Amino acid sequence: MPHPITQITAEKMFAIQRLFIATSLVTTFISGTVLADTQVDPKTALKMLNAQQQQFERQIVKVTDNVFTAVGYHGANTSMIVGTDGVIIIDTLFGPSSATEAYEDLRKHSSKPVKAIVYTHSHGDHIGGAQAFVGEEPPEIYATDNFGIAEGINEVADPVKMKRNIRQFGRKLSPVYQTNRGVAPAVTKDGDRGKGFLPPTVKISSEGLQTVIAGVPIEFHVGPGETNDAMYIWLPNEKVLFAGDNFYSSFPNLYAIRGTAYRDVLKWSESVGKMAELNPEYLVPGHTMPIRDASTAVAALSNYSEAIRSVYDQTVRGINAGKGPDQLAHEVKLPEHLSNEPYLIEFYGSVPHAVRAIYAGLLGWFDGNPTTLSPLAPKIKARKMADLAGGTQKLTQQMQTALATEDYQWALELSDHVKWLDDADRELARKVKIAALRGLAAREYNAPNRNYYLSYANELESDQLSEIWF
Q1: How many CA atoms lie within 13 A of 108 on its CB side?
Q2: Which part of the chain is the Metallo-beta-lactamase domain (predicted)?
């Protein structure tokens, strides 16, 4: 069934989300404990995630008369720029199957041959379907000259990163638990991952490139952000900006819980600030709906840059005041005038996670407190916690009380102590941890957090985790 050009705009979604935030998103207190920033009552969390779902419903969006964006065909977007004698494709989705479906619908708006393909960065969901766009004449493929370093150089940890990736995106969750991935739908076609990838043929240096392709003046600007090999694409005549993953409608994922090398937060803020200086009238993100309003687009980029810089600056000030990452993760907040902007809600990225990543990226693991230089082994600490509580049975009772009173984070932490004790009911500790994880997940509107809690609970329940992990 054909997918018509949508009449729903990102700007309308933002207006709806602002109203929703004003009426529904309030700080929640349970058992005297303030929940994390991204935890609200379960009904509100689900409503928020369902509202965000509109950002990636499958559709072809007409950005301008010659620019079309396919949203929701996989996790990321792919766009087509129509020129005089051909078209330009910006990003190519995850694999040939999703790319083919998007291309078939994009072709309803032009049958001209593909003259060029552009990779905004090297994450797999943007580069894996290129072959689907290639006709009889191979197009030039543009990317930065350092293309391919999106995940840094930590391939040695790929086995555990893959496990954590599955949890973060909820790839194995049953439909009853699925919501979305924050900036992508919950279910995507992933079986042909990367099988349509084609290597770049034109490398863009740090100076960028201004050229004409298919009669379309186009500019390539190198802009490190989510990855060090990122660039953004500018159409000066149409005033269209393709941001890649340096902007999407969520607080940015300055750190991904699947495990990533340090993402240079300061450079990310600077790159988005430079995008705002172009004064785009149309903004096409790497995920979520395009923005087709000049004032909204410029404000979104300016605010995005400011939000990232604010988190960075607050963290650095705290570091230089001698504060550790645990304290800072609870203290750093978005500026009040930005906290309710729909494109900065923490559906995907998280301010506390960003703070910890900035701390580690600048100083490494040690928080400066000599107490943490050589902490007790988990089993020894658990024994001392039990003794402090009055014995293993008392500690176990405290764990059960925390669960019963829905103090889920405390229940989790106590279950991790109880499971180390040889004289404890480890099976009970496992059951408490499963229940606490699901309790936290129900309150989460941050999709990666929610998916990780639920996925880990399922693995515990099905005995997929050893005692080392549990």
Answers
A1: 18
A2: 75-287
Tell me the C-alpha distance between 301 and 220, whole Å.
Answer: 18
Q: pTM score, two decimals? A: 0.93
Cα separation, 338 vs 156, in Å, equals 38
CATH number at residue 437: 1.25.40.880
Distance CA 75, CA 91 (A): 12
As a whole number of angstroms, the distance between CA 231 and CA 210 comes to: 13
DSSP E strand boundaries for 215-367:
216-222, 231-235, 240-244, 282-285
Q: What is the pLDDT of residue 257?
A: 96
- Residues whose CB falls within 8 Å of the CB of residue 209, separated by 6 or more in sequence, listed in order: 142, 219, 220
Beta strands in 107-148 (DSSP E): 114-118, 140-144
Tokens of 342: 């729909």
Q: What tens digit of pLDDT does each residue of 328-343 get?
A: 999 999 999 999 899 9
Work out the pLDDT band at 462, boundaries 50, 70, 90.
very high
Residues 337 and 406 occupy one common structural domain: no
280 close to 298: Cβ distance less than 8 angstroms: yes
The letter for the amino acid at 119 is: Y
CA–CA separation, 36 vs 39, rounded Å? 5
